[in-house]
Design the sequence.
């Protein structure tokens, strides 16, 4: 109940109070300071000012109604010489209307309104022609500028939302690629080994098929988790667990493919921020996929070290062919992009010990926000 009341206050009452305060400031500065003619006198001026404030209070819920309301009140005030408000309040309302409902930058009705504003106000202003002309010009500029700014804000918001959706689709596509390539790589290697070994017994075949089934089920489960995460922005991007335990799970397909995997991690790797753990998990997953599919390695060593809030990862294999992954796919590009999104560094290449992938990921302080 308390949360509901707070939400109602934040969405309805607070904007109305703020709009009312803005209206009072405009009335005090641009209405009350003008000496009204007698008659109708100060009482009518105060009534018009109150109607102006009331119309502005409707801006958040009914911006079109508020714009028409305040525009009519301001025009009447100009007609009787009771204000110098250059349709400032109307501009506030038109901005919200344009930001929510506008479609064209310069609609026909806006051009017609500008022309009528000039013609009508110049005709009804019998005294103070110079002040009237200045007020009319300023009012026309404010109304036009408010509408244009509202449309610009709307388009910027749409563009921001579109970019955010594109980034989410890219992230999802990258995660799906990592999951499928890792799993299918392991399945392909295992199936290839069984298919080419003529001495395989029935038990060997059954064991291989059971392993393939297990890998496929794991991949489907992880894809299911990814789909759920798209509906829950607060969900973590990796399966629950410590990074070392997750890496041990990732290494199972490589071990089944005959690759000896050694994991060397310090104690700091057990308690990492979600962003670091997610990025490290996906990079190691892709690196192991490349080892299985491209390297022809016998041994793969994964080193995980924490230095302050930095996480450093090295994946080293002794195979001759891992470099082909950089030419035949997007695996290395995806790993590099993941590291850079977190403000980290990525390097891959051959050294005296074999093919080496090195990643450095900063903590929260060094993160580059992209959303």
Sequence:
């Amino acid at each position: 109940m308390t949360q509901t009341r707070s939400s109602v206050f934040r969405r309805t009452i607070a904007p109305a109070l703020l709009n009312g305060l803005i209206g009072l400031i405009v009335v005090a500065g641009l209405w009350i300071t003008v000496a009204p003619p007698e008659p109708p006198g100060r009482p009518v001026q105060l009534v018009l000012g109150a109607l102006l404030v009331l119309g502005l209070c409707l801006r958040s819920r009914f911006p079109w109604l508020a714009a028409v309301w305040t525009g009519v009140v301001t025009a009447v005030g100009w007609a009787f010489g009771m204000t110098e408000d250059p349709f400032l309040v109307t501009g506030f309302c038109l901005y919200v209307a344009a930001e929510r409902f506008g479609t064209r930058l310069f609609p026909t009705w806006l051009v017609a309104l500008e022309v009528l504003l000039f013609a009508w106000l110049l005709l009804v202003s019998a005294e103070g022609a110079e002040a009237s002309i200045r007020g009319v010009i300023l009012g026309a500029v404010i109304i036009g500028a408010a509408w244009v700014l509202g449309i610009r804000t709307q388009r910027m918001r749409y563009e921001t939302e579109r970019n955010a959706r594109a980034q989410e689709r890219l992230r999802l596509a990258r995660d799906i690629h990592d999951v499928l390539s890792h799993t299918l790589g392991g399945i392909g290697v295992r199936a290839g080994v069984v298919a080419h070994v003529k001495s395989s017994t029935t038990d060997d075949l059954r064991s291989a098929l059971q392993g393939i089934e297990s890998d496929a089920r794991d991949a489907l489960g992880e894809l299911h988790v990814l789909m759920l995460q798209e509906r829950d922005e607060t969900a973590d991007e990796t399966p629950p667990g410590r990074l070392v335990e997750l890496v041990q799970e990732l290494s199972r397909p490589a071990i089944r493919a005959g690759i000896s995997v050694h994991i060397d991690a310090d104690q700091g790797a057990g308690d990492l921020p979600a962003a670091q753990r997610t990025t490290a998990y996906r990079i190691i997953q892709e690196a192991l996929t490349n080892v299985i599919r491209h390297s022809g390695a016998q041994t793969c060593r994964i080193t995980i070290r924490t230095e302050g809030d930095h996480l450093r990862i090295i994946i080293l294999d002794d195979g001759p062919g891992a470099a082909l992954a950089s030419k035949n796919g997007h695996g290395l590009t995806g790993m590099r992009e993941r590291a850079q999104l977190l403000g980290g560094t990525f390097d891959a290449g051959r050294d005296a010990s074999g093919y080496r992938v090195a990643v450095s990921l900063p903590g929260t302080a060094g993160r580059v926000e992209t959303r």
Summary: The chain has two domains: 2-160, 242-371. Confidence is low (pLDDT under 50) at residues 323-328, 365-371. The two ends are 32 Å apart (CA to CA).
